[in-house]
Amino acid sequence: MAQQVKPKHVILITIDGMRGEMITNPTIASENLKQMRAEGLYVDSIKGVTPAATYPSHTTIVTGALPSRHNIFYNAPFMGNQPRTISYWYADSIKAETLWQTVTEKGGIVASLFWPVSTGSRYIKYNVPEYWSIKPGADQMAFLRANCSPAGLLDTLELHATGRLDEENFTAGSINRDVREAYMANYIMNHYKPTLMTIHLITTDYAQHQTGTKSLRTRRTIESADAAVGVILDNLRDHGLMDSTVVIVTGDHGFVDVNRQLAPNTLLVKAGLLGKEYGSNWKACFHGAGAMSFLYLRKPNDAKTLKRVEKLLAGLPNNVKAKFRVIHREELTRLGCDPKVALAIEPVAGVDVSNSREGSVIRPR
Questions:
Q1: Per the omega criterion (within 30 degrees of 0), is the bond before 150 cis?
Q2: Nearest to 207 by CA among 196, 197, 216
Q3: Are 53 and 78 in contact (CB under 8 A)?
């Protein structure tokens, strides 16, 4: 990345689930990222928000605020004792000022591709949001086309940049998805010249969830994300925009491989504090998010139930208690978590969480 004096454009790219090793490991083919590191500014590590999940992290990136201020606490909101079916899709859920708003109100032009919590944003002029239908069998691409702005934007990008997209060539796990997204970004950059463009690349996250951090599939998606960055950089060079553009590549959270899973809701079911089925009576419920689990009480000031839950956790065998720590309200406040959370469980590295209500509290992953 060339040294900038007075940049006219900023392209902010997130690689979902990005780990420092993706850049620093010489055996990983990420030559574009390595070049950016060598020629630009590189930060060894960052401290993420709590929980370290895609939606709250992305919202912190564009607001500079903790979740307690920007209001996006998880990927999916806690819905009481109901199944999780929706995510924090809509931009009007954000309660803090965003970069999109700041740039637009200063007279700039904003574009965005697949950024979480961007659907319906009045501050993004050219917007293909991260958004999908929860209806079984829905045509997801048709649903997405209908929710882009301006109307017909995705059709234009398909016509001039990517070719027709469908659920075979543009799924979350498609190895070519990130590069196709880069072609979209280039068309937008060349034709609309946005002051700010935010871009979310997702395939690395999907691969690590499915196959772990060391798999061949994950390496290929790292190469794909790197190629997407290279496509964007090449376009800037080819169109004489490199010297007037700042390109930032960052991650939203890291990843560790897991082999065990913690299911604290099983304790609540056995204690009669939570029904086995969604929609049943409940007094307490854990909500898993970003490798942590957050306790909600049906009655927020129910100290009796909270003490029962604390006693249940304290009464677990030592070998189980060694797999997590309990985070209490004072620390949760400092971390910027949802003020409605009574306590949280943070597992050790290698242990994930589950919302399961049946089986043992600790089980193989």
A1: yes
A2: 216
A3: no
Hey, is 230 helix, strand or coil?
Answer: helix
Q: Cis (ω within 30 of 0) for the bond into 51?
A: yes
Report all structural domains of the chain as residue ranges with CATH numbers, in order of start. 9-251 (3.40.720.10), 260-364 (3.30.1360)
Q: Kindly compute the dihedral angle of the four CA atoms of residues 113, 115, 117, 123, in this order, to the nearest 10 degrees.
A: -50
Instruction: Specify the residue for token string 């299911």.
Output: 263
How distant, in Å, are the alpha carbons of 107, 115, 180 from that of 199? Answer: 21, 6, 12
Q: Is the dihedral of CA 237, 241, 242, 247 positive or negative?
A: negative
The Cα-based distances of 127 to 98, 114, 227 in angstroms read 15, 8, 22
Asked if residue 99 lies in contact with residue 106, where contact means CB atoms within 8 angstroms, the answer is no
Contact of 89 with 76, CB cutoff 8 Å: no
CA distance 358 to 347: 19
**Per-residue pLDDT reduced to its tens digit, 13-72:** 999 999 999 999 999 999 999 999 999 999 998 889 999 999 999 999 999 999 999 999
Pull the structure tokens for residue 123. Answer: 């501050």
Computed from CA positions of residues 21, 65, 39, 207, in that sequence, does the dihedral angle turn out positive or negative?
positive
CA 106 to chain centre: 27
- The C-alpha atoms of residue 296 and residue 327 are separated, in whole angstroms, by 13
| 345 contacts: CB under 8 Å, gap ≥ 6 | 262, 264, 286, 292, 293, 295, 313, 324, 325, 326, 327, 353
| C-alpha span between 75 and 51 (Å, rounded) | 10
pTM: 0.96
* Sheet of strand 343-347, all strands in order from the earlier edge strand to the far edge: 284-289, 292-297, 343-347, 324-327
CA distance 269 to 275: 6
Q: Tell me how far apart the alpha carbons of residues 171 and 175 are, in angstroms, rounded to a whole number.
A: 9
| Distance from C-alpha of 18 to C-alpha of 322, rounded to nearest angstrom | 28
Q: What is the largest CA-CA distance in the chain?
A: 66
120-176 pLDDT per residue, tens: 999 999 999 999 999 999 999 999 999 999 999 999 999 999 999 998 899 888 899
What residue type is assigned to position 148 of the chain?
C
What's the rounded Cα separation, in Å, for the pair 153 and 133? 19
